[in-house]
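Hi support team,

I've been running sequence recovery on a batch of backbones for a student project. Most finish fine, but this one hangs at about 90% for roughly twenty minutes before it completes. I'm not sure whether the input is malformed or the queue is just slow. I've pasted the structure tokens below so you can try to reproduce it. Let me know if you need the job ID as well.

Thanks,
M.K.
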């Protein structure tokens, strides 16, 4: 991820037994939007305030969400409560 302030952030993917990759990209986008909303960072100013720890936490959340989707048949993204149960 590249930010408008020049930040560059990346996290490793989650290792899962892949059943189906349909919906993984959509899940990443949905998880990023959900995470930004939860952090009050849906504005440019809010995103600028995230910093390295905020961005890596958010990207890790999105990677874990996509991993759950890939572990299921069909486009079945996780609900937020499922990620909370997984320690996300």
């Amino acid at each position: 991820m590249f930010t408008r302030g020049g930040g560059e952030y990346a996290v490793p993917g989650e290792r899962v037994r892949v059943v189906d990759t349909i919906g993984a990209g959509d899940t990443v986008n949905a998880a990023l939007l959900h995470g930004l909303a939860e952090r009050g960072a849906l504005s440019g100013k809010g995103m600028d305030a995230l910093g390295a720890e905020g961005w890596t936490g958010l990207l890790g959340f999105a990677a874990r969400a996509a991993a759950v989707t890939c572990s299921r048949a069909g486009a079945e993204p996780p609900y937020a409560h499922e990620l909370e149960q997984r320690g996300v």
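--
Follow-up from support: It reproduced on our side and the slowdown came from queue contention, not your input. The chain has four helices and no strands. No action needed from you.
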